[in-house]
Amino acid sequence: MSESTYRIQGETGEWEVVIGLEVHAQVTSNAKLFSGAATAFGAEPNSQVSLIDAAMPGMLPTPNQECIRQAVRTGMAIGAVINKWSRFDRKNYFYADLPQGYQISQLFHPLVGEGQIEISLDDKDPEANVKTIGIERIHVEQDAGKLMHDQHPTRSYVDLNRAGVALMEIVSKPDMRSPQEAGAYLSKLRAILRYVGSCDGNMDQGSMRADVNVSVRKPGAEFGTRTETKNVNSVRFVMQTVEIEARRQVEVLEAGGKIVQETRLFDPDKGETRSMRSKEDAHDYRYFPDPDLLPLELDDAFLEECRASLPELPDAKRRRYEQALGLSAYNAATLTADADTARWFEALLAEGARIQKKGEQEVARASANWLLSDLYGALNRLNKDLDTSPVSPEQGAELLALAADGTLSGPLAKQVFEIMLETGDAAGKIVEERGLKQTSDTGAIEAVIAEILAKNPGQLEQYRGGKEALFGFFVGQTMKAMAGKANPAVVNELLKKALAG
């Protein structure tokens, strides 16, 4: 559903929703933003806390260059302005899981300025229904720790492992007008981060989460008062948050109430948002330049190194798959929507091109169809993904090569594939050990055909009497008698001769 058609129907008519997302993405790096502490997910509570993270007296922060590099690379990937001069600020507020009593962030002079992301709402034709979503800024900041309220009946526990972890806060402009656009934007942003390698995008582990800003208005009117729903951790939940919060606001306004600028939480179990606290403004945090940190000054050599390190990005890869490899728009979009899928496909394609004596486009189309249909179908059935696939790209390429050169028929290839899934063995090994090679031995096939015709005189008479649809019956009987190992093309040719006789 496009921006122009998504409306909320209220008692007083149609309402338009206005959406902006603030995405917090944990930076992939070797340490925290201002300390050397590790950032591994799932570590024992308080086992990854340096003296700096714990805000011990006299500890001074030092910026981690890799964190800055990854944020710059992310900005470049979305065509954003990279500010050669930026500065850290202190955001003052008290939480029990923030030992310093302030957060080091960037308000006035962020590392990355304006950029943009293109989204499409048409899976079958990614070039159709395209919309550009503006990015206002990307700033770098440190994360807080985590409070745990369910470990003890009367006490709350504090885990500081996340305290000081580097985050990129990627702030969109209020350019989205439907839950679908918000979902498409978040999915596309996640894909770009994973391609770049600046964030793993694992929303279920908290390394990427979104604050969802929602307001409603009569179509074309001034922006309404917005609410911010914090820490939404999946694309589906972001879309639900938009719809639920927008409908709530419409109901409040139509009942004569006012929308309060506040921070809310999304409860997926109850399907509702609820108030958390009033929304503070910037002056409430008493921002000022951090006196312990010098401004960041980036030179041209550093920026050039960052730009040179960028990979081929999703949109460019998708267009190459369509134009150079001849893939359908849908297959190209599906293969490039996730970095891991694209890497797996390219490994499959590279190995297939090496061992098959066919054109690149032919190999690419066969590889794409097999991956998206056969392999994905099997992995879904087995509740696995590409990372845990029993079949490697090299093994898949060997299977496709055996099918392409006539060693395996379509049914035999499927049979061998099932055995590969069960055993992890290579296709060639399975074919040799189990005698599953397709035969084109005309003498053997002719003998089987003669036997089939002798056993089915009634059908033979009907066929020769003009019932040509029975040709498929004879093909099926022949293939069955040869356990699917006969070359179908040879079977068809020899059957036509025998039936005409």
Automatic annotation (TrEMBL):
InterPro entries: Asn/Gln-tRNA_amidoTrfase_suB/E, Asn/Gln-tRNA_Trfase_suB/E_cat, Asn/Gln_amidotransferase, Asn/Gln_tRNA_amidoTrase-B-like, GatB, GatB_C_1, GatB_Yqey_C_2, Gln-tRNA_amidoTrfase_suB_CS. It comes from the Bacteria. Keywords: ATP-binding, Ligase, Nucleotide-binding, Protein biosynthesis, Transferase. One of its GO terms (molecular function) is ATP binding. It holds the Pfam family GatB_N. Residues 343-499 form the Asn/Gln amidotransferase domain. Allows the formation of correctly charged Asn-tRNA(Asn) or Gln-tRNA(Gln) through the transamidation of misacylated Asp-tRNA(Asn) or Glu-tRNA(Gln) in organisms which lack either or both of asparaginyl-tRNA or glutaminyl-tRNA synthetases. The reaction takes place in the presence of glutamine and ATP through an activated phospho-Asp-tRNA(Asn) or phospho-Glu-tRNA(Gln). Belongs to the GatB/GatE family. GatB subfamily. This is Aspartyl/glutamyl-tRNA(Asn/Gln) amidotransferase subunit B. It comes from Sphingomonas kyeonggiensis.
